[in-house]
What does this fold into?
Amino acid sequence: MLKKLFATVLMSFSAAAFAVPFGSQSVLVVEDDTGKILLEKNADRVVPIASLTKLMTAMVVLDAKQDMDELIEIDRSDVDTFKHSSSRVPVGALISRRDVLQLALMSSDNRAAAALARTYPGGADGFKAAVKRKIAALGMTQTVIEEPTGLSPRNRSNAGDLVKMASAAARYPDITAATTESKDLININGREVEYRNTNRLVGAKGWDIGLSKTGYTSEAGRCLIMNIKAAGKNATMVLLNAGASSARILDALNVRRFISGEEAPMRVASASNRAPRFTASSGRARVKATAGGPRIKASAGKAKVKAVKARSKVTVTPKRRKK
It folds into this structure.
């Protein structure tokens, strides 16, 4: 009896040895097949979400069932005059809506996202109304999205809501295909131009990725949504407000190592703005069902991420993975 009890205690605390510096300020990792929360940190904190917004833009555009082969002309009004971000998509270019969607998702191009909203039925106002309806339909009660690119810091959400968005986006084959291409050739004014994925883990050795989207603004920091398969498990991770690209990448690597049960985690580069540690435990965070859909409840102000043995579940719909 004592041996059994001792073995149970050892199993309960075996994960506690996994402790790593963690650069992202908000984290949520959910096992897709069960809805179990694997890791969380500040999952309820509402923050700017930068280009993670483009997953919502893509869903709303695809829901409208517009002609994806229709040519869209990139207009001067699509140019970013707010943050003056760069773009390799020239004003005046005629590009199919399908390729514009690819540019918005894979390369996170802001002109492409703006053009998708501008050419939406009813224009920018019609697009904004459709986004509001989609947010409500998904039960994203802590989310506000005012424009299609994510450049505005008023586009805000939390990690719990973004897991819902990722789960919904993963049911769109066009989105999973576009976000998991490492590069693509797009016809721009009769010339084939190569564009690359903003997530350098896509196509990297050892990574099985089913959905991906990066984001960055000065207000949002480095952000990442990714669905991965590791050690036979499908999981969705949301990483928000890392201090540097290197910190975001190492956070993703350490999440994968945690899921796989590997030891000797990698350390976050000094470029991150902060590197609090997280430990595995049977901690306090939990999923709480509400009328608006499941809600992630996190301990406020904690500097640790905890692996959670949650009894309640986040509903995550399994998606088709590219072969």
User: Anything to note?
Assistant: Residues 1-18, 268-306, 308-323 have pLDDT under 50 and may be disordered. Residues 245-260 form the longest helix (16 residues). The helical segments are 2-14, 53-63, 97-106, 110-118, 123-137, 159-169, 173-179, 245-260. The first strand starts at residue 19 and ends at 21.
